[in-house]
Amino acid sequence: MEPRKISDTLSVAPQISVADVALARAQGFRAIVCNRPDAEAPDQPGFAEIEAAAQAAGMEARYIPVTPGLVQDTDAEAMGAALRDLPGPVLAYCRTGTRSATLWSLAEAKTRPLPEILAAAKAAGYDMNGVARRIANGGRTPTDTGDASFDVVIVGAGAGGISVAASLKTRKPDLSIALIDPADIHYYQPGWTMVGGGIFEAQTTARTMGSLIPSGVHWIKSAVAAFEPANNAVILDGCRVVKYTRLIVTPGLKLDWGRIEGLHETLGRNGVTSNYRYDLAPYTWQLVQGLKGGRAIFTQPPMPIKCAGAPQKAMYLSADAWLKRGVLKDIDIQFNNAGGVLFGVKDYVPALESYVKKYGINLNFFHNLIAVDGPAKTATFRVAKPETEPTTVTMEFDMLHVVPPQVAPDFIRVSPLADAAGWVDVDQATLRHKTHDNIWSLGDVMNAPNAKTAAAARMQAPVVAQNVADDIDGHSPSALYNGYGSCPLTVERGKIVLAEFGYGGALLPSFPKVVIDGTKPSRAAWLLKEKLLPPVYWRGMLRGKEWMVKPEKVTAPSA
């Protein structure tokens, strides 16, 4: 942690860890302000965790969360009040520190000369010229001109964003392309199931973002605040404006931990874990190794979620470890699923049911987790079975693996790009926006009815790249996405049911049955997941190498 001093009473910093709180106290800070909403990133501790650490260190903590770029006057007023009320000096943080600096700048605008504000922020490493424009324009960020302009702007440097940037650069080497993402670290999230199962080490799933940005692509290390498609403009955190000719939107989704009462306060302790967070997946394996008896509950929220098989993967790998240790007979495994089926594509269900039987798992459908009491070790579920009045049931646990509800990111849901449910509204075949012809989307954020998996993004990236290239050349889209997604269901250590399917549940196997029969558990599929897919991801997909994912072409109608 390296706080950046803005004034005698305030320093700002990028996201801090729980361990940084004691360090901040040792550096003389007496209060902490969090300006970052919970669950913006998969490696982010919740405010409740930071607050508990602050209280233990004898510090005060205040929560003033702001969605990137959507800083309201009331937020600035709340920040100003906090700086007046809290004992100083104060440490404020968000993802990068920009929101904290923005709030301070706006709060100080009525009493401090603007040049002085800009100079103080600049000395701390923050460019507040966009904020100055906002102040000068009565609170609005003008988008008729921009701070930078590119042929193609890509929002989000996850699996979809880096892959489509690389694929597009291969097709059009001379394009000016900007990739917007504030994260320092890129994660291979499909590996977190294996971390939670004791197969991978967590650090093998993480690499620095700078090492992965394709050559010739400009990385703008900032969060996106808003879109103004009428002006072909993206507004960044700090009120800067980037203009584009074409836009690709792929920021992923948001894990909505806060929707489950009491969850944030107990994540990573009291036997409560989740493979959906980088820092918690190792705790899953720690719990599995330590459990000798009692009840283990695995949850699945309502769809859509990232990788619909992941809740079960955690359960099967845990059960297999307990079986091999000889303690499975003493462990009551409950799978509480908000949905009504074990898996959405029926062809794979028989194989999964055989493992449910093998491990003695109790299936509880229509059970949606709504609250957790960590110290009491109880979980409460809303039970809403068809044609019955909803009820609640509370269950005790010794281990609880939680999959959080999942939604589109806040800045997407409030944007003109979103459908009524908050997802980017695209044509499911071309992945072009239904309203704005120069905008495309891929990955977890868009509303095509496919499985939200990294394998889906691997197939979508060349489709979008080709269709953007076609548009640049003045042609109609030539590539189609068939809904392909893959979910390697780790049913035991050493065997996987390789579910591959497209729109409508159509089976789309990549291999002949004699090599891998995806409807049956196989060793070959496990070797694919463990040994082959990670290098395919790092060295192929993220570098624009379209192995086994060449886009399906539009077929001209016969005469």
Q: How many domains? A: 3
The amount of helix comes to 25-40%
CATH homologous superfamily (4th level) name of the largest domain:
FAD/NAD(P)-binding domain
The average pLDDT score comes to 92
* β-strand number: 28
Unreliable segments (pLDDT under 50, ≥5 consecutive)? none
Strand content: 15-25%
Q: Which CATH top level class of the largest domain fits? A: Alpha Beta
| Amino- and carboxy-terminal Cα gap | 67 Å
CATH architecture of the largest domain: 3-Layer(bba) Sandwich
Going by helix content, strand content and strand pairing, the class is alpha/beta
Radius of gyration, in Å, reads 24 Å
- CATH topology description of the largest domain: FAD/NAD(P)-binding domain
Topology:
Blueprint lengths: L3 E2 L4 E4 L4 H9 L4 E4 L12 H10 L3 E4 L9 H13 L4 E4 L4 H11 L5 H10 L5 H8 L11 E8 L3 H13 L5 E4 L4 E3 L4 H5 L9 E3 L8 E4 L3 E5 L4 E4 L4 E9 L4 E2 L16 E2 L7 H10 L3 E7 L9 H16 L5 E7 L11 H11 L2 E4 L1 E7 L4 E6 L7 E6 L2 E3 L4 E2 L2 H4 L25 E3 L12 H19 L6 E2 L4 E8 L2 E7 L21 H18 L11 E2 L6
Parallel strand pairs: 2-5, 3-4, 3-5, 6-7, 6-13, 7-10, 13-24, 15-22, 16-17, 16-22, 17-18
Antiparallel strand pairs: 1-2, 8-9, 11-12, 12-13, 14-23, 19-20, 20-21, 25-28, 26-27
Helix pairs in contact: 1-2, 3-4, 7-13
